[in-house]
Amino acid sequence: MNPRATPLDWSRAAGADEVRAALADLRAGDLPTHGGRTLSYVYDSGMAAVDEIGREALTAFAASNGLDPTAFPSLASMETDLVGLARDLLDGPASTVGVATSGGTESLVLAVLAARDGNPQITRPQVVAPETVHAAVHKAGHLLGVEVVTVPVDPHTFRPDPDDMAAAVTDSTVLLLASAPSYAHGVIDPVEEIAAVAAARGIRCHVDACIGGWVLPFLEGLPPWTFAVEGVTSISVDLHKYAYTPKGISLLLHRDPALRRGHFFACADWPGYTVLNTTLQSTKSGGPLAAAWAVVHAIGRDGYGELARSVRDATLQVAAVVDEIDGLRVVVAPDSTLLALATDERCDVFTIADEMGSRGWLVQPQMSFAGHPATLHLSLCAATATRVEELVSALTQASAEAVRRGPVRVDPQLAAAAEALDPAGLDDAALDGLLAIAGLVGDGGGVEVPERMAEVNALLDIAPPPLREALLTAVLDRLTRTRP
Fold it and tell me: Where N6-(pyridoxal phosphate)lysine occurs, residue numbers (predicted)?
C-alpha cells in the first residue's frame, strides 16, 4: 500500500524485457483490476475478448491528439458517434450535443463552467445541490469561484426534499444538480421535481449520472431522470465505469448547442495558432476515446442490457443477504448497482473493511457525515455478479470477526483535541506530528500506510471534515514527493 521505488537505473538504457519485468514488479503491489473483487475504482465486464479489443484500440490511437479534429478526423467521428449513442440511451432530443472528457470530474466541472459562463450577468454565481452530491462539484466550485449551496437529505431515504432545493434557490443560482444515483448511497434523487424547480426559475439542471448512466437505462421500474424529464438540461455519464472501457473517458451531454458554448474556449491573443478547446484539456490522447468506441460497439446495446441486469440482480441478492448478517445492514434500498452498508454498535465498518481486505476484497469505507453513519461502499460490476456467494461469505466472516474484536475506540481527549484544531494554522511540522499520532509514520520517519487501517480511519472519522482534508492532503503530499 506504499509507493515502490523504481527498480531501474536511469543512467543506462534498459532493455525491453528488463522494462517489462520492472513494470510487473511495480504493479505487484496494486489492487487487481479484474476479477470482480475490487468494489471501487475499477469496473470489470468479465469479457476478456472485449478487454483485448479495447487495449488494441488504446495502443493504436495512443499517439493521436484530440486537440485538432481536422488533423485527426477519426477522433471527431468516434466522439460524435459515442455522443449519438448516449443521446439515444438517455432520451435526448435531436438537438442534443456533447463532448468526451477525461472522466466524471471534468464533466462536472464543465457543467458548472457552462452554467456560470452562460449567466455572465450574475457576479457571484451559486449552484444548489443535495449534500450527497459528488465531491467533484465542490472541486468545480473551488476552481471556478462558484458557491456550492448544499441541501440536507432525508436520514432514511438519503434523498433531498425538492421544497428544500427550491428554498435554497436565489437570484444568483445558475444551476441545480441531482444524482442518478448518488455515489455514497446508490439512490436516485427526485430528478423530476428538482428539474421542475429549475425550469420554473429559468435555471439549468444537471444530472450527474457518471456512475449510473450506462446502467440505469437498461433497468425497469426506476423514477425518471433522463432528458425525457422536462427541465433537465445536461447529463454526465462515464464510459470507464459501467460501459467497461479503459480509463479515462466520460461524456457530457447538453440538450442543445447553446448550452454547451459556455465551456468552449478560444484564444487568438498570442503569436501561435488559435487555440480551440471543447473541454479543459488541450492536448488529449485519442487512445481512451478509441478504446471506448471499440468496447461500446464490441459489447453492443443488447450486451449492455444483459450486463446491467446481471449486476442489478447480484446487487439485490447481496442486499437481501446482508440484512441477515449479524452486525451488518443495508443503509437504504439501492436503485442501481451500488450498496451502502452500516453496522450496529457492536462493530465498525473500518474493521470490516480491513477484514474484507485480508480476504482479498476491496470495500471502500466512507466516513460519517452530517449525522449520517459511516458506511461501507460497494460498487458491484459484471465480474462480481458471478461471485456473489464468495462475496457474501467474505462479508459474513468479516462481520463476525469485527463483532468479536469490538468497535475501534478513539480516546475522548484526542477527539476533543481534534475538534479544537484549526487546520488553517497547521504548518508542516504540526502536520507531521498529527500524522505520527494517526499511525501514518513508519520507523524511518516517512509516511507509510499500514495494511490495517481501522484505527486510522476511526480517528479520521471523528475529525471534522476540514481537519480530515488537511491530514489526508498531507499524506498525499508526502507519498508523492520525489525520493531522496
Answer: 241
